[in-house]
C-alpha cells in the first residue's frame, strides 16, 4: 500500500530564505508526483507536476525534483516571501486513473 | 479556460439528515472526476472517482455515494449523515489523458452536528 510522508510538518522562516520541503513515498511504481498549495479554508492549487520519467520541474521560484528509485521528492522555494505562507501538499499517482495519494502536508509560515 | 465549481461552500447538517454536494466543470469534455475528503487532523483521502457518465468507483467503504448524471457533473450524496462525515470535501478533475495535472475545486465545508 502506497504511503506518502512529508517532512517537516511545520516550518517558520524569515522572509528571503531558501527552503526545502521533503516528500517520500513507499512504492516507487508511480505515474507522477504533484505538489500543491493550500491556503486556509481553500481548495488546492497545483504548483508542479513531475511525470515518472522526469527528474525535475521548475516554475518561477519553485523547483521540484523527483528520485523515483529512492522514493523521494523535494520542493525548493527560492527567496521566500510572506505570500508563500500556506500548507504544501505532495501527492503521488500510483493506482491507475490518476488516483492521488496525499501526504499530510508541510505548513509553512514566512514572516517579514 | 477550464473552471470547476462546488456548492454549497459551507453546510451544517444534523445527524441523520440527507446530503447532496454538487460539482461541475466547465470548459472541458469527458474529464475524469474525483471526490476527496479532508477530515480534521487527517490528510486528503480519495472517496470516489469517475471516468464517464454513470461510471463510478468507490475507494473506501463509507456512508456516502456518488453519481455522475452528466459528463461534467459529479454529485456526492448520503441518505443519513453521521458525525464522522464532517470534513472538507473537494472535487477535482483531470483531462483523462495519461497522467495529467489534477485540478481542484474550492471545496465544501460540511459540519454534522
What is Rg of chain B?
13 Å
- Alpha carbon gap, first and last residue of chain A: 41 Å
Which band does the percent of strand residues of chain A land in? over 45%
Major beta-sheet overview of chain A: 6 strands, mixed
What would the average pLDDT of chain A be, to the nearest integer? 95
Percentage of residues in helical conformation of chain B: under 10%
Instruction: Tell me, briefly, the overall form of chain B.
Output: globular
Our count of helices of chain A gives 0
Strand proportion of chain B, as a percent range, falls in: over 45%
The computed structural class of chain B is mainly beta
Write up this protein:
- The complex is a heterodimer of chains A (112) and B (113).
- Chain A is 0% helix and 57% strand.
- In chain A, the strands form two sheets. In chain A, strands 2, 4, 5, 9, 10 and 11 form a six-stranded mixed sheet that branches.
- Chain B has 113 residues and is mainly β.
- The model of chain B has no long low-confidence stretch (mean pLDDT 93).
- Chains A and B meet through strand 4, strand 5, strand 9 and strand 10 of A and strand 4, strand 5, strand 9 and strand 10 of B.
Layout of secondary structure:
The complex is a heterodimer of chains A (about 110) and B (about 110).
Chain A: E1 4-7, E2 10-14, E3 19-25, E4 32-38, E5 44-51, E6 56-59, E7 62-67, E8 72-77, E9 86-93, E10 100-102, E11 106-111
Parallel strand pairs in A: 2-11
Antiparallel strand pairs in A: 1-3, 3-8, 4-5, 4-9, 6-7, 7-8, 9-10, 9-11
Chain B: E1 3-7, E2 10-13, E3 19-26, E4 32-38, E5 44-52, E6 55-58, E7 65-70, E8 73-78, E9 87-94, E10 103-104, E11 108-112
Parallel strand pairs in B: 2-11
Antiparallel strand pairs in B: 1-3, 3-8, 4-5, 4-9, 5-6, 7-8, 9-10, 9-11
Question: What keywords describe this structure?
Answer:
heterodimer; A: mainly beta; 6-stranded mixed β-sheet; 0% helix; 57% strand; B: mainly beta; 7-stranded mixed β-sheet; 11 strands
Short description:
By secondary structure, chain A is an all-beta fold. Chain A has strands at 4-7, 10-14, 19-25, 32-38, 44-51, 56-59, 62-67, 72-77, 86-93, 100-102, 106-111.
